[in-house]
Design a protein that fits this description.
Length: 228
C-alpha cells in the first residue's frame, strides 16, 4: 500500500512542489493538505495519513505545536518537520513534541522521499545523541537553579515525563489524569520554574538529573571503604 501523506505549509507553491515531488514516487500519495495550523486536526482526522509533513513557522501558529496535537490525538501518524531554519531550540521542541524527523527545505528531493518512507516505517531520523546534546545545551542556562524543590511530588513526576518527551495525553494515561488536568499541572510547574516552554523544562530536568547523578558518584568516591 502507498504511504499516505498530509502536507502543512502556508505557501501554496511549496505545497504543490512537495506534492509533485512525493507523488513522483509510486509508493507515496498525498491525501490532504492545509495552509494553516487551525485546519490541521480536522483534516488529518478526515484523511488518515501515515505521515504529516509540517512546516515549523506558520502565520497562525507553530508547526511544532501542531505536531504535539497530532501525536496526542492521532499517535499512529508520524510527523516530519520541514523548515527553512536550522534552530536548536526548534529542534529540541520538535523532539519533545514527538516528531520523527527535523529536515531543512534545502534537502534533496530523493532524500525527502526516502525520509517520508522511513518515518512511515517507524524510523526516527533525529538520532538520540543529537537530541540529548541539544536539550542539554538548552538547559545549561538553568544549571544554577534548583527550583524543583518548589514543585509538588505530582509536578515533579510530570516534569520527568515531559523530559521523556511525553505528550499531555500520554502523561495523563500514565498517571491516570485527565488531559486537561495535566495541562493545568504543566502550566503551574512552568510558572513555578519561571519558564515559558516545555523544552526549557525538559532541558532543566535533564541537567538536574545529571547533577544529581554526579553528586551521587562524588559521594560514593568520598565514602571510606572498610578494610578487608
Amino acid at each position: 500500500m502507498a504511504v499516505r501523506v498530509f502536507l502543512l505549509d502556508d505557501h501554496q507553491v511549496v505545497r504543490e512542489g512537495v506534492r509533485r515531488l512525493l507523488e513522483s514516487d509510486e509508493e507515496i500519495t498525498v491525501v490532504g493538505e492545509a495552509a494553516a495550523a487551525s485546519e490541521v486536526l480536522a483534516r488529518v482526522a478526515a484523511c488518515s495519513p501515515d505521515v504529516a509533513v509540517l512546516d515549523v513557522r506558520l502565520p497562525d501558529g507553530d508547526g511544532i505545536e501542531v505536531c504535539r496535537e497530532i501525536r496526542a490525538h492521532h499517535p499512529e501518524v508520524s510527523c516530519l518537520m520541514l523548515t527553512s531554519y536550522s534552530d536548536d531550540e526548534a529542534l529540541a521542541q520538535a523532539v519533545l513534541a514527538g516528531a520523527s524527523g527535523y529536515l531543512l527545505k534545502q534537502i534533496r528531493g530523493n532524500d525527502l522521499v526516502s525520509s517520508v518512507k522511513a518515518v512511515a516505517g517507524g524510523a526516527t531520523l533525529i538520532d538520540g545523541a543529537t537530541a540529548r546534546r541539544v536539550i542539554e545545551e538548552l538547559g545549561r542556562g538553568h544549571t544554577s537553579r534548583d527550583g524543583a524543590e518548589v514543585l509538588t511530588p505530582r509536578e515533579r513526576s510530570i516534569l520527568e515525563l515531559i523530559a521523556a518527551g511525553k505528550t499531555n495525553r500520554e502523561i495523563g494515561a500514565e498517571l491516570y489524569l485527565a488531559e486537561k488536568t495535566v495541562k493545568n499541572y504543566v502550566s503551574n510547574l512552568l510558572a513555578k520554574l519561571g519558564m515559558a516552554r516545555r523544552s526549557e523544562a525538559a532541558a532543566y530536568a535533564a541537567r538536574l538529573a545529571e547533577r544529581r547523578a554526579q553528586d551521587a558518584r562524588n559521594r560514593e568516591r568520598e565514602t571510606p571503604r572498610s578494610s578487608p
